[in-house]
Write a structure and sequence with these properties.
Strands 1, 2, 3, 4, 5, 6, 7, 8 and 9 form a 9-stranded antiparallel beta sheet that branches. Helix 1 (2-19) packs antiparallel against helix 2. With 179 residues, this protein is an alpha+beta fold. The protein has helices spanning 2-19, 150-178, and strands spanning 26-35, 44-52, 61-73, 76-79, 88-92, 95-100, 111-115, 125-129, 138-146.
Length: 179
């Protein structure tokens, strides 16, 4: 019973941490993917990106500009300032569809483009082309996941430690009453 009271006491703390998140604050995300075809088939890629989470209304089709984008692909780091067009993340009724980023010119590649999904993130893909090599183009798939804020991770860790300590104490009390 004490465990439930401890968990109930933690709920307001967790909610206050979530509500303290400013709606206009940029949120950090991680993109991970794998090249499925072409000359770089089997290669993996990753990116760090952020956008203003609070600008997503959750109604209809929305596009939010990226604040930051750094891609690691084929041993090269490519940044947002190398893009020829604005970079955006797309949402449908609040659900993330993916990233739209065209003509990310960079060393070793003729172009890179990210295409969002039409109805879900699982449909999103990356397209690339190597310079001067006909038939060297390929595609890959990717997923985007949030990077937890340090304060949220610390709050969650503290809550789990407290629940663990309470469970041990409850178990010790139960064993003591059996003797």
């Amino acid at each position: 019973m004490r465990i439930f009271r401890a968990a109930a006491a933690l709920v307001p703390l967790l909610l206050s941490g979530l509500l303290a998140h400013s709606p206009v604050q940029a949120a950090d995300y991680r993109l991970d993917g794998q090249i499925d075809s072409g000359a770089l088939s089997g290669s993996t890629f990753s990116a760090q990106l952020s956008w203003q989470d609070g600008r997503v209304s959750g109604l209809g089709l929305e596009a939010i500009a990226l604040d930051r984008f750094e891609l690691l692909l084929d041993g090269q780091i490519r940044r947002l300032d190398a893009a020829d067009a604005p970079a955006q993340v797309h949402f449908l009724d609040g659900a993330l569809l993916g990233l739209e980023l065209a003509d990310l010119d960079s060393p070793g590649l003729a172009s890179i483009a990210f295409v969002p999904g039409f109805t879900q993130l699982g449909e999103a893909w990356l397209a690339y082309e190597l310079p001067g090599s006909p038939g060297s183009a390929g595609i890959g798939s990717y997923q985007i996941s949030p990077v937890p804020e340090p304060a949220s991770a610390a709050l969650l860790g503290a809550g789990l430690l407290m629940l663990s300590a309470r469970a041990r104490r409850h178990r010790a009390d139960r064993l003591a009453t059996k003797d």
